[in-house]
Amino acid sequence: MMEVAALAVVLGVVCAIVLTVLLYVYVIPESKNGKLGKFLQFLHDFFRFRKLYIEAILRFLYVLTTMLCICTGFFMLFGRTFFAGLALMILGPVVVRLAYELVMLVIILVTNVIAINRKIGEEGGKTAEFVDENLK
After folding, report:
1. pLDDT in tens, 77-86
2. Helices 82-123 and 54-76: angle between axes, nearest 10 degrees
3. Which domain holds residue 18?
C-alpha cells in the first residue's frame, strides 16, 4: 500500500514540474495576453494576478462564519447553555465582522497601491514599470 502512495507522490511531482514548465513557456508570458483560449486566458490572468480572488473567498468565509455563529447560538438557546448561545448570537457576528474588516483593510491597501503604481507607470518612469512587474 505504501508503494502506491509513493508512486502517486513521484508521479504528482513529475507532472507538476512538467506542467509548470509548460505554463511558464506557453501561457504565463505577457506576450501571450489576449491570444489564448478562454481557459488558457483564465490561467494566464490567474497566474499573473490580474484579479485578487481573496476578496470573494473572504466574503464567502465571512458570511459562512456569521451564519455559523447565529445558527449555533440559536440551537444553544434550547439547551443548558442559553446565555452562551445568546452571547454567541450577539457577539459572534460582531467579532467576525471586525476581523473581516481588518483583513479587508489590508487587501484594499494592496489594491490601491497596485492601482497607484500602474498609474505612475503609465505616466512614465522605468522604476514604476520595474516595481509593477514585480507585483504581478
Report:
1. 998 889 999 9
2. 170
3. 1-48
Burial of 14-44, coded b for 16+ CB within 10 Å and e otherwise, reads: eeeeeeeeeeeeebbeeeeeeeeeeeebebb
- What's the rounded Cα separation, in Å, for the pair 27 and 50? 14
Task: Note whether 66 and 96 are within 8 A (CB).
Answer: yes
Contact between residue 107 and residue 52 where contact means Cβ atoms under 8 Å apart: yes
Contact 116/102 with Cβ under 8 angstroms?
no
CA 11 to CA 63: how far, in whole Å? Answer: 38
Tally the domains of the chain: 2
* Global pTM value: 0.65
Distances (CA, A) of 22 to 3, 18, 28, 125: 28, 6, 9, 32
